[in-house]
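Onboarding guide, step 5: your first structure request.
Type a short instruction followed by the sequence, for example:

Predict the 3D structure of this protein.
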Amino acid sequence: IYAERRKILIDQANTLYQQGYSLDAEAVNKSALQIDPTITQSFINQAEKLVNQGKTLCQQGQFQEALSIFDQAILLFPGDASVYVELGKALFEIECYDEARDAYKKAMQLDANWTRAYVEQGKTLLNKGKALEELGRFEDAHVAYGQTVLFYPMDANAHMYLGKVLYELERYEESRDTYKQAIYLDSSKTQAFDQQRQELINRGKMLFDLGDFEEALAVYTKAISFDPHFKDGYVGKGKTLDKLKRYKEARAAFQAAHSIVSPIQPIAQNTSWMYKEPFRYDL
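The system replies with structure tokens like these:
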């Protein structure tokens, strides 16, 4: 009777797992173990055999087949953290990074010692992105960094490098938002954001000094897109529009700069007339 009841429960657990109800399957599986606790070691032995089989399949590059094997092992012995790690590795290889992340998280919940393995996998993706970025392959680097963020969303470096490559692709608003996430995770990443912002401001100033006002205007507009709360972008834009005799637009830019002035960004004494005098900006 016990054997028959246990078999019914195990079959039920298998069906639930195949349908994607893994938590329900684990609960039913535990019920089967409670009926006859003596089979626990048998389940462990079977799970170990399945894990070894799955590893062999991974070595042969048959990752999809390995996934099914690891799922069966988890069903037999859901308390073994190492099985989830192997599952995570296989999912990582087929670029299912969000699912791989969840598998690693489950392993770490069961055994925190697996945290290092998870971190190292994240570094693998990050280093791939860095290598592509150094080759100037920014689109490919963007993909790699995006995968890193998906797999390891709490890594501030991953967000920072993603922000950097988005900046190189001139996707400034996305870059800004990504940097914000990096700064949220690690406030020291503010320095990298500030450097990129200043790079745009300096480029605009250089073009302005060369008399290339149209190009300078384009760069200052990019600087504002990257950080709409930094006055230097608006001041530079206003000065450039003034040179182009687009006075009403210049006034709007100076007024925008004035509205965001803070103790950190005071208005220089010798430029205060730009905001106060109606002068030609009312023409």
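Each response can be followed by summary notes, for example: The first helix runs from residue 2 to 18.
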